[in-house]
Amino acid sequence: MSKKSLQFLLAAFVACLPLVGIANTTADSTVVATEVVADQHADSAHETEEFNATQLINSHIGDSHEFHVADWDGHPISFYLPVILWTNSGLEIFSSENFHHDNTGHHVAEINGQQFVRNNEVIFYKDKYDALTVEEQGKGAFNFDARPLNFSITKNVFSMFLSAIIMLLLFLAVARSYKKNSKAPKGIAGFLEPLITFVRDDIARPNIGEKKYAKFMPYLLTIFFFIWINNLIGLVPFFPFSSNLTGNIYFTFVMAFITFIVTTLSGNKDYWGHIFNTPGVPVWLAPIMIPVEIIGMLTKPFALMIRLFANITAGHIIILSLFSLIFIFQTVAVSPISGAFVLFMMVLEMLVAALQAYIFTLLSALFIGQAVAEHDHH
Amino acid sequence: MNFTSPESLIFWTTTVFIIFFLLLKKFAWKPILGAVKSREESINNALQSAEAARREMQDLTATNERILQEARMERDAMLKEAREMREKMIADSKNDAQAEGARMIEQAKLAINAEKNAAMSELKAQVSTLSLEIAEKLLKTELANKDSQKQLVEKMLGDVTLN
Predict the structure, then answer these.
(1) Which H, E and C letters describe B102-126, residue by residue?
(2) Residue A93 pairs with which residues in a beta bridge?
(3) Minimum distance, in Å, between the CA of residue A248 and any CA atom of chain B
(4) How many angstroms separate the CA atoms of A40 and A189, rounded?
């Protein structure tokens, strides 16, 4: 009985955390002011701009150059991450503090004689930025003329380092525990071993086959735990977690691309034979079949990329939207309802976090299995 | 969502993932998978040897049972043999005794016969001596007067004529 109520309290605590974490985590002070307004039952609404839920949500699911921790007395407290730029005149490394929280292209950061501005988390050269139209200024991610190459440790990169460190510590501890203890697993090993054997017995073995699965086990285990841990980190709504790494399409692109590379490199004669000379298809159909098969090669990792990105991002958007309801209605009376919904969504997202990691790993194993399968020749 | 510079995350993800993968592969997955596998093997081996031991135990029990059975049978056989031997001995001795007895009786009989014969012959001799003496005495007395002698002779002669 007491255990249940403890679990409930814990769940309620987790559900309430976003009130502190997510709702505050925004770079500009608009929302902070709005929040104050909401607390005062909107009697001084004229003081602030209208609450913009889209902007709030976008800033949360996107990447950023600084890690917003909390707001104190109207001022954001941030963990400033390093900005690493490959400019026309060489490498520049400086703190993101130099932008003074500006994300609209107004504040100029002057570093070693070069001037940079930041608009919507994209860093431009000041002179080239001024020459752009307003629309171009807002969408500069692929405008490599107007901006330096950016290798900054952003919030997502920071979170990735964090997850890698957590996982290294975790699994090296597990590995060490096996060296000492050759009997039944204890502690962390006892918790993680079922997951490892799950990946082996339910993902790798049935999809890749008894003979070849062992070679791909390290890769499958790595992506399973990497995606899962990062999904979970994304659900924890406070510093140093709360990033949306696995809901970032660049990240899922890299993961899917690595699966594509692994699949392609491990493809055997039958795999390539099916692509370039599909058995049972007349030769004159080859001009149609070969492009179709090559598209088929690419759609598989493409689906992987989109699935993970969409699932995680959608979860974050739903949770943030439920919180935004409080600010849209400008009353605390909504908060129990949206809190309850958020609690439900958080629990669901916990499931989704594991499920998406599982699906990504399962499909990777399936694609690898198709590439290494020995077909019977009819 | 705001699309920040793609090259940052792509570069770092690739780098971090590859290094992370290699580190984990060398220092975590290999020992972990190896340990899990070897433990599974050792569990399987242990189960197999337990099964073998169980079977051996069964065999042993069966052997014991068999030996016990044999011992029991042997004991029964020995007891039977002993009983038979005893009976045979009793029977034999009985026979011997009987035979001896019979022989002794036969001897006794023979001795008795011999004694009887001897006694008879002695008796006969004595009887004849006595008879003679008696007859002599009788004759003496009988034939003491002349009449009786004459009577006798007559009688005897009468007998002879009758024949």
Answers:
(1) HHHHHHHHHHHHHHHHHHHHHHHHH
(2) A84
(3) 9
(4) 51
Q: In the structure, what pLDDT confidence band is assigned to residue A34 with cuts at 50, 70 and 90?
A: very low
The two structure tokens encoding residue A317? 């958007």
Please, are residues A228 and A163 in contact by the beta-carbon 8 Å criterion?
no
- Residue A91 pairs in a beta bridge with A86
Contacts of A33 (CB under 8 A, 6+ apart): A47, A48, A49, A74
Using a CB-CB cut-off of 8 Å, the residues of chain B touching A148 are none
DSSP character for A41? Answer: T
Residue A110's nearest CA partner among A132, A87, A140, A131 is A87
**pLDDT 10s digits, B37-94:** 888 888 899 999 999 999 999 999 999 999 999 999 999 999 999 999 999 999 999 9
d(CA A263, CA A366): 10
Residues of chain B contacting residue A193, judged by C-beta atoms under 8 Å apart: 32, 36
The residues, ordered by sequence, that sit 6+ positions from A367 with a Cβ below 8 Å of its Cβ are A259, A263, A300, A301
On chain A, the residues whose CB falls within 8 A of the CB of B17 are 222, 226, 254-255, 258
Specify the length of chain A in residues.
378
| Helices B6-24 and A155-180, packing angle to 10 deg | 0
Which one of B11, B16, B32 has the shortest CB-CB distance to A175? B32
Q: Could you read off the pLDDT of A108-155 as tens digits, one per residue?
A: 888 888 888 888 888 888 888 888 887 777 777 787 888 888 888 888
Q: How far is B33 from chain A, CA to nearest CA, in Å?
A: 8
What's A343's DSSP letter?
H
Identify the bridge partners of residue A76 per DSSP, sorted by sequence position: A71
Residue A175 burial (C-beta neighbours within 10 Å; 0-12, 13-18, 19+): buried
Distance CA(B149)–CA(B25), nearest Å, equals 169
CA–CA gap between residue A158 and residue A83 (Å, rounded): 12
Residue type, A4: K
Residue A140 to residue A119: CA distance in whole angstroms: 8
